[in-house]
Every structure is written in structure tokens, then in C-alpha cells.
């Protein structure tokens, strides 16, 4: 198994490497000339010979290596031998072809924003491709042509069908701005938009819209993909469909996404955003499930977004991801939390525009009437559509300014079958979480409908019509992240012992057996697809599935 290095060891190694590199002169070559003795065991001393042009583009200076050896999780460090900053798609293709054609192939990881938690975008001893470099080159050349909005007439529905073509390196925030400028928008989002299209499509891309629109992977019409043999293929449900379904939710194993065609709809302009509080988990989940059910939605335009958050004794009912509750209400809300230990906060949103302006309040009243939330604890905001979707960004900026963004993030994201969510509440929220009392983070819990996911795609989800996503989005200090990790292990162990068939989202496993269990009936197929599309097991080694 690949070796992992604790952060302190890593820093020592990197400092030694940097020292040696600066001693031999600021090398831009891709081998650690002169530093081989100091490399961690397992790292090749250099890459096989590469075409000159490509070799010139590889960076092995300590800053580049340091950057590519870290991610948002700040928990593991895996040093690549070099970093490629491609200026064009051809650079990516050449790199993969060079590895594939070599008798000593090296691993390659596409890195979007590196917002992974456990080194998934790293390439220990291989090459990391900084996908954002494509974006920078396009911007420097004032080339916004990589994001193209198009409309075609669909004779079947007799309506225009809209879509946008974007690079795999594009940030979702840019997709939002560039499509809404034209009155259109994708329908499925993540909570946070400073993530790349390639990165989220490799996982699934989920948020409060997923119950209604499916995850982001359900809203892709076509992809361009560089496979592990260096071939650039266009794929869709009707063309190279096996590659298309493998790549979506495929954790980067089958190809590098260089273009995605994403479905668009007319963009609303405003959002009614509501939070209400529950003391009883049964009432909370019953209402969540009612609100996401098809029947409920048929009654009106329906909700566009639904999530849920746990409020535990954290000093403020708000969190960095959103300042929502009026400050004057904080004391009252905290009083509730103190009294009940946990308060469950249901969060919903309905989009509207000028045409719908006069109906939105009435529709919401009808939809939310008769729910079991605590009377007197409903709070509403009316915000622009763009601000709603970009709601996490102000919190990020604030944490950045306080130096609290680049800290360890021992996150755990799970999908929990609906039939066991109550047991999960009893065993995890009310027991492990309250007992450990280390919840300096956010805990999300909200349901989604399985019929909005496409089982032909690689993403692994529970085998029930409704399942919940539960996200433990914790931030810790550099010296105490193990405590959070320990809690994560307790949670997983509890589920195993209680027979709760969870699936990890943004998964992290160490053994092949665990991966086989994770993918379940899809596993054999995925192994065959790996052999077909990445036979030398070059791509995304940081996921540690086939390496
Ligand atoms: P990276 O971390 O750089 O890469 C992730 C994986 O994808 C790696 O294996 C990498 O090799 C591979 N990869 C990257 N680019 C490509 C490509 N072009 N082609 C093929 N493979 C590629 N996720 C959600 O679903 N919903 C959320 O609401 C959400 N909120 C988040 C909030 C924050 C603050 C953070 C840090 C993360 C959040 N995530 C969320 C998780 C996020 O979707 C994943 O971490 C995703 O992988 C991040 O994208 P990235 O561009 O940083 O990818």
C-alpha cells in the first residue's frame, strides 16, 4: 500500500528537498537532480524521458510540489515528482500519452481546486496536472469561448433546449455568472461554487436541489474525456456511452474530463429562503420527506431546494457557511438548543421571478402549512438567485481573513438509507456527537430521491428510494484533527455494528475489499472499465482504488 506521511514528517522531507533543489540551482526540470537520497521511499528519482516541449512545462520547484501535495483536508500529504501547468488540452493529452507509451508509466492526477479531503487529487511519485492553469491561460488570452451557451429547437417538446459547454477546469461560480448573464442557469448545484466542473462530476455534485433535479452528474449531456491511453473521446448516452457513464461519479479513474455539456433552464432572479426549527427528529424527517415527494411537489410549483442542519451547543446558531438568523433571535434559538440538546433546522427555498412574484408567498404558505416545526421559529429571507447560490462564499472570505480556512478538515460525508435514519439519529447524533461534544463544524442532514440518479453511472448510493446525505463538515486545529477522525471512525463502526448500510460520499477507503463493498454490484464492471479505459492504472492514484 502507498505510504502516507504525517504532516510534520512531510514538512521535514519537503524542506530537505527544497534545500537541495535550491542548492543545485532553481531547477525547472522534472527530476529531483541531486535530491534522490532525501526522497521518501517509493518515489521514483525521475520520470521516464518525455518530449522536450512537455518536459519544459513540468515544474518540480518546491513551491509547486508543496502546493500539489496538499488539499483542503490538510490531513495527508503525497508529493508528486512534478506538476504540469498545461496551457492547452494538447499538453494534457501529450502527458497521458507519454506515460501510457512508456515502459515505466507514471501516475497522473488531474487537480481541480484540490478541495478534496484525503489526497484524492494527489499523485504520490507521479505528476499532478493543475487543471486551473487551462482556465488561467484562457482568461489571459481573453478567451471566454471555452464557455459556450447554445440553444437548439427540440421538435419533440416543441421548445428550445438550452445547454452550456464548459471546460472541466471551469469553476461552477463562473458557470453561474456566464449563464445567468444570458438568462439561463444549470439546475443542479453544490453548496459551494469554487469547485471545478471536472472535480464535482467525478463525485456527483449534490446540494439542496438534488431531490428535485438529481445530482450534477444527472444533468450532463455530453463529455470530452482524455482516457488513460491518451485518447480524446467525446461521449454521451448515445455515443461511447460506456465511457460516459463510467466517468460520471467515476472518481477520476477512467479519464480526465476536459469538456462537459450541461443542461440549462431559464434562470429565476430571486429566492425565498426559509429556515424552521424542530425539536423532534421524527417530525423533521417526516416533513423533509413529504416536501421532497412527488405528490407534494405536484400541488404547486414546488420547492427548489431543501436541506437540513443540526444545531448543537456551538455558541451561535449561525455558522461560517451562512449567517441567516437575525442576531436579535440568537438568544431565543440558543435557549431552545440548550433545552433540547439538538435542534433540527429545516432549510428550504423557492425560486421566483417577476412573472411568479405574486404567487410565491401563497404557494409557499400552501406547501409549508401543517408542518410540525416549532411555532414562532420560522425565519425568511428574500435574496437574489446568484447570492443564494453563492451563499457560502462570504463565510469563506471571512475565514480566509482570519487564517482559519487552511486548517485540517476531517470531514465525513455519508449516504444513509431512509429506513435507518432514525437509528442513525439515536446512535450518532444523540449519542456519539453529543457525548464527544467536539462539533466545531457543521452537520448537514437532508434526503434525496434515488429516482433522480442514474444507476448506470459510477456513483455509489444506497439501495432505497429515499436516502439521506449526512455531512460532518468539521474544521480542527493542526494538532487535534485525530479527535475528529476518531469520531468519524466511531460513526462508521456504529453503522457497521448496527447493520446500517451507509455509503460514503467523497469516499475514502484503504483496501480493495472496502472499495469492492462500496461499489457493490458495480464493482466488477468498474474493474473491467478501468482495464478498458486506463489499462496502465495511470489516472487519479490518490483515490487509492486500483493503486
Ligand atoms: P479536486 O479535489 O481537485 O479533485 C477531486 C477528484 O477529481 C480527484 O480524484 C481528481 O483527480 C479528480 N479530478 C479533478 N478534476 C478532474 C477532471 N477534470 N477530470 C477527471 N477527474 C478530475 N461537494 C458536493 O457534492 N456538494 C457540496 O455542496 C460540496 N460543498 C463543498 C464545500 C467545500 C468548502 C469544499 C471544500 C468541498 C465541497 N464539496 C461539495 C466537495 C467537492 O465536490 C469535492 O471535493 C470535489 O472533488 C472538489 O472539486 P475540486 O475541483 O476541488 O476537485
TrEMBL record:
Residues 76-267 form the FAD-binding PCMH-type domain. The chain crosses the membrane at residues 7-25. PROSITE patterns: FAD_PCMH (PS51387), OX2_COVAL_FAD (PS00862). Its EC number is 1.5.99.12. GO terms for biological process: cytokinin metabolic process. Its cofactor is FAD. It holds the Pfam family Cytokin-bind. Keywords: FAD, Flavoprotein, Membrane, Oxidoreductase, Transmembrane, Transmembrane helix. It catalyses: N(6)-dimethylallyladenine + A + H2O = 3-methyl-2-butenal + adenine + AH2. It comes from the Eukaryota. The keyword Lipoprotein does not apply. This is cytokinin dehydrogenase. It comes from Trapa natans (Water chestnut).
